[in-house]
Structures are given as structure tokens and as C-alpha cells.
Amino acid sequence: MREIECFIILAEELHFGRTAERMFISQSRVSQLISALERRIGAPLVARTSRRVHLTEFGAEFLASLVPTYRALAGVVEKARMRARNLPTPIRVGFQGAIYDSIAKAISQFESQHPRAMVQIKELPLGDPFSDVLAGRVDAAVVLLPVEEPELVAGLVFSQQTQTLAVSVDHPFGKLEEVTAEDLAKISLVPITGPAPEYWRKVHSPKMTPKGIRIPTRGGANTVQEGLSQVASSRSGLILCAATAAYNQRSDVRFVPVKGLPSSALGLVWRADHESPHIRHFSDAVEEALNGTTGSRPQ
Fold this sequence. Notes:
Layout: H1 2-13, H2 16-23, H3 27-41, E1 46-48, E2 53-55, H4 57-84, E3 89-96, H5 101-113, E4 117-124, H6 131-135, E5 140-144, E6 152-161, E7 163-168, E8 179-180, H7 198-204, H8 224-232, E9 238-241, H9 242-247, E10 253-259, E11 264-271, H10 277-289
């Protein structure tokens, strides 16, 4: 396990000195651990030169297979350690945009019903809804749908919302009661930056109108606040769901409903191979907090 831990940290740092600092060992010990792992595997994992360190092709493939299993094992050990110390077991929940009232209520309700569990929350970048849950950095995540990642389960779908266009109060669109999806070709949109898959971007950061007309872009935003700041100070627009728009009201921005775009929805997702009773119980708490008005479980 020490060899594996050393290899994973070295793959992150690509530097023997920084790896040694993180592990509180010497650089020579790092070299010994990596060499021992390479002998155990039977192939070189790391290529070293006087100037740089990089993974071999075999090492990169090994890392991709290794990390999910290692994180799962580390999580099991950590939960066992906390149970042994009679500490609450954490469930890490990521969220995009904001912790809405229903989610905050669900967290409180879950912790009341499961006093030995504790919810830790982490904000996810607007343009990266799935990386943290796929990598095991969070146990579940409340994200904007759609989700088509084969490793993920959408356990609860809720908060169906129309899309809105955020524009400066001085923009001509800001004086309208509604715009159409085709009108988006007449304004530059602030694109959402990050590694979100293309199918997700088509809904939340479209490049084309439904009729295939290109939508101009300008700037880029990794968070809602970055996008709204650009909107307020320029002639650009930003696509946001109605719930996010309501949560982020400000005097210099107007939110105009967009007719003709797919509706937005939130989903609670988790890795299928990391499902646990706590995740299911948390999903139940969210559904109860929503009073069953918009929640629906997939069959």
C-alpha cells in the first residue's frame, strides 16, 4: 500500500522532491518505493530524466485502473477508523451553483435521522459536473442534467425548470418578457468553461440554435458569479435555469425566459459501484424534503 500511495502521489506531482515532502520521507525512499513497485508489477511505470519525470504508457494505464480501487479501499479504511473512534461517518455531497432550500432541508433531515452520519458539502465548478463524483472525491452530487456517463446512476430527478437568459438591464433583450431560442444567435453568450461533456453543453451552453444557426460567444465562465459579472459589464448573455436565476437575483442583471430550449433539471447522481446505504438514505431524505411534488425515481 505504501508503494501504491507513493506511485499515485508521484503521478500527481511528477517530481520526486515534492512527492517526498508530501509523504514526509526522503527522495531516496521515494525512488526505493517506486522501484519496488515496478519490480512487483514487472514493468517500468515512471520514466526519469535529469529534467523531468513522466509516466510510461504502461504506468498511465496502470494508474487509470488503480486510482478508483485505491480510493474505494482508502474510503473503507477511513470509515472503519471513524467507527472505531465512535465518530460520525461522512457522506460527501457535491453541488452545482447553490444549496437550494430543499437540499439544505434534506441535509438537516438526513443528519437528524442518521446521527452517526455527517454530510460534508463541496461546491462543484459549473462546467465540471461529473469529475469529482467519477473520481470518488465526493460520494454523490446534485448536478444539472442530463447525465449519460455509464458509471453514474441518476437516483433522483427533480426541479424541472425553464431556461432563462441573463443579460444586463441595459441590453435590449432585458426589456422583453420572453426571447426565443433562435434569438440567441443575435447575442454573444458567455460559454461555460470546463471539461463537461458535449451533450451536457448542448443544453446549458449551446453553440447553435435549434435551427442550426451559430451562436456567437465571448469570454468564458467557470462559475455562475463569473458569468453574471461578465454579463453585467458587457453586451453578452448567459444561459441559466430559472431556479439558479431566482437564487442569483441582482440589480444590474435581468433574467428573461427562453422559449424553445430543452428544460433544465437537477439530479442526485453517484457512482454505481460506490452505492451505499447512506447514499440511498440521503436520496430518500432529498425526496422527502421535496414533499414528493417533483421527485421521481427511475424504474
